[in-house]
Amino acid sequence: MNAKKLLILAGIIVVVFLIFLLLGPFYVVNEGSQVVITRFGRIINTRTDAGLYFKLPFTDMVTVYPKRILSLDGDSQRIPTKENQFIIVDTTSRWRISDPKLFYQNFKTLDVAYNRLSDIIDSSVRTIITQNRLSEIVRSSNIINERKNTGQLVETDGVETSQIEELLTQPGASEAVQKGRMAISNEMADEARKMLPEYGVELLDIVPRQIKYSDELTESVYNRMIKERSQVAQAYRSLGEGKKAEWLGRLENEKRTISSQAYKKAEELKGLADAEAAAIYAQAYQKDPEFYTFWKSLESYKTTMPDFDTLYSTDMEYFKYMYNSRGRE
Q1: Verdict on whether the full-model pTM lies above 0.70
Q2: Mean pLDDT in residue range 304-323
């Protein structure tokens, strides 16, 4: 009898234990998860470490939150910069739940948290964008303004790049970047973090995923690009005109130099020829003075007679060989 009662009691205990297990008195916290345990809507405990834990069936509720890093893509916003130039900014941010208790008290669900965080991040992005210039937002460094100075002139196709740079360099042509996009992103995150600790959320960063010009600014940027390219083209044309004038000047100088040297050489050759002719004439005269005089007279007749337009007397000394081959005595 006692054995039978004990057997029945043992069966009852097993059944009750099975029913108790079926009611779910245990819960598991997985790696990468954290939970908040509430009893009749009041938080009684939180678990952030993985493991198997006990709860009261029916009364205790377990809300699971991710412990890993989450991402939030913001809405595209049309925001004016400090110069009142409108741009379209699209950001993404990374965050995680740092305090599940505060998070549950403020949001309870992830969907509500996403909506609230989106409003906070969009507000901080708008605040920082409106305080900074366009160049600070779209650029990360001053590399566009830097010039390599190696101390040597680099020549390409006969054009020195240093000369091109001098023509293209204009004061204030490109604004210097004081912060850059990375610093602007950090300022956005710092602005948003001011409101997040009370929500049990840790914001890791805010990164501009895409920055686009608005339609009216796009046209302005294109016009400025066209103007800059025109300036580059004009710089090359100016340099080309300068090179042309320089080479034409060199050509004219070389032409004058060559002409001067040629004239000098010609005069020297003429002088040598005249000296040589005079020496020949002198030698000829010394060999036969009478024949020399006769020959020179004939040469003179040949040159002067066709130009005579008046009559001259034949008794003149000049014509002594004209009528007498031996000369008139």
Answers
A1: no
A2: 65
